Amino acid sequence: MKTLHLLRHAKSSWDQPELADIDRPLNQRGLRSCRRMATALAESPGWLENLHCSPARRAQATLEQLSLALPSPLQWQTEPALYCFDSHTLLTWLARQDDQHAQLTLVGHNPALTELCNTLGDNTLNNLPTCGYVRLVSPTLTHWADILAHPFQQTAFLRPKDLTD
């Protein structure tokens, strides 16, 4: 059995249009969303294991803000390949992961994460919103390299707007 946790970065700021996309920080709404999501994510088993994040400033800041609101600091690996916008890149990265890891968490970007949910999952997702979280579980997958050959079930979907401060 393998579990995939997907978290989209929180809402980013466009106040400085001269910044490169990778350098955009979070805006105030993004900061609020992180506080809202921290409590709900703390109750979601396994998402803290094998945490991998895009190098984009907004993705890194999302984890930093979540970490501030959680009882224990988060630890993650920055993965340049996760700064992408298509699910094919994510699938290629996932297929190369070590099979000893039963759970993987990816913090990244749309449309890649929404496409990945729709490619693997049993529900069609119109959009994984900023700071949104999805858990996908495949009871039959044993090798990440075979990720496309096994069905996944969506067992959690959290959105900041559904939570209270």
Automatic annotation (TrEMBL):
> Cross-referenced Gene3D superfamilies, in alphabetical order?
Phosphoglycerate mutase-like
Q: What is any Pfam family matched here?
A: His_Phos_1
Concerning SMART domains, the annotation shows: PGAM
Family matches, as PANTHER family: OS09G0287300 PROTEIN (PTHR47623)
**Know the name of this protein?**
Phosphohistidine phosphatase
Origin organism is Ferrimonas marina
Source lineage: Bacteria, Pseudomonadati, Pseudomonadota, Gammaproteobacteria, Alteromonadales
